[in-house]
Amino acid sequence: MSVLGKAAQERRPLTAGLLHDWVNVAALTAIFALSAAALESGEESSLHTIVIAVTAAYLVSDALWIALQPDMVKTPVSVILHHLVTLIVIVEPMFYESHRVNASRALLVEINTVLLTLRRLLGRPAWCELGFYLTWAVIRLIWFPALGTALLASTFGWTSPLAALPPPLTALVVEVRPPAIRSYASLSFAAVVMLQFYWTCAMGRGMCKSGANKESRKERSLESEPSAPANLRYLALSLLSTGLIAGSLLYWMLPGTLSEGQVHSDL
C-alpha cells in the first residue's frame, strides 16, 4: 500500500460502513472456511448442514442490519435483494440432505467477496488485486457456470447429454445426487450465474474508464465508505439474530428432525 493509502486509512473514523465491511470480512471468511472444510470432509458430512444454517442466519441478519441502517452501504436495496435470492437458492437443500453439498460448492465464492471487500479497505494492495481477479475468473466465470449447468441438468433431465461431453469438458461436470433439484432453486442460481457475466462486463467497463491512474483508484477506494456513524447496538442485534437463527435451523435440520424429501407442496 502507498504512503498516501496508509495515511488515509489511519485517519478514517469507525463509520457504519467500515464496521459493516470488517464484520462481513470475518463472517464471509468463516463461511468460506466452513464450506471448504465441508467439501473436504465429503458429500455426507454434517458440516454441509452447518454451512447452510450459518449462511442463512448471516443473510437474514445482515439484511436486517442494512434495513435498520441503510446508509452504511451504497446500494442497500440491491444488497438485500441479492441476499433474498441467495436465500431462495439455499432453501432447497434445507429440505433435501443429499443436496446440501451444493450449498457448500456455491459458497466457495465468498473468498472472492472477502477479497473484493479487502481491496477496498486496504487500498488495493497487489496481493489482494491478484487474488481477487484470479478467484473471480476461476469461481465466478468457470465454477459457477459448471455448477449452474449441473443444477439445471438435474431439474430438467439433461444428465445424459452432460455425461456425453468430450473428455476435456467432463472435468467440469458436477455430479448432483437425486432427487431432482427443484426448479425454483436451479433457475434462481442460473440467474445468479448470468449476473456474474453482467458484473464482469460492468467491471471491465469501469476499468477502461478509470484508466491507468492506480493511485487515484486507491485513494477513491479508501474514501468510498458511507460516513454514517457506527452503531454497535445494530451489530449486537445482528449477532444475536444470527445465533438464534443458526441454532434454530441446526435443530430443525439435525438427523431425525426432518426426513429426506419432507417438503411442502409449494416448494
Q: Roughly how many Å is the radius of gyration? A: 20 Å
- Given helix and strand content, the structural type is mainly alpha
Low-confidence stretches: 1-5, 259-267
Task: Tally the helices.
Answer: 12
Strand content: under 5%
**What is the multimeric organization of the chains shown?**
single chain
SSE pattern, N- to C-terminal:
HHHHHHHHHHHH
Number of domains: 1
Detailed description of the structure:
- This protein has 267 residues and is mainly alpha-helical.
- It has one domain (14-253).
- Helix content is 73%, strand content 0%.
- The chain contains 12 helices and no strands.
- The chain starts with a helix and ends in a 14-residue tail after the last helix.
- The model is unreliable at 1-5 and 259-267 (pLDDT under 50).
Summarize the model shown.
The protein is mainly alpha-helical and 267 residues long. It has one domain (14-253). Helix content is 73%, strand content 0%.
Please write out the topology.
Blueprint: H1 3-10, H2 16-41, H3 47-68, H4 76-95, H5 100-106, H6 110-121, H7 126-156, H8 159-163, H9 167-170, H10 183-210, H11 214-222, H12 232-253
Helix pairs in contact: 1-11, 2-3, 2-5, 2-6, 3-4, 3-5, 3-12, 4-5, 4-10, 6-7, 7-10
Notable traits:
267 residues, globular, 12 helices, disordered N terminus, mainly alpha, 73% helix
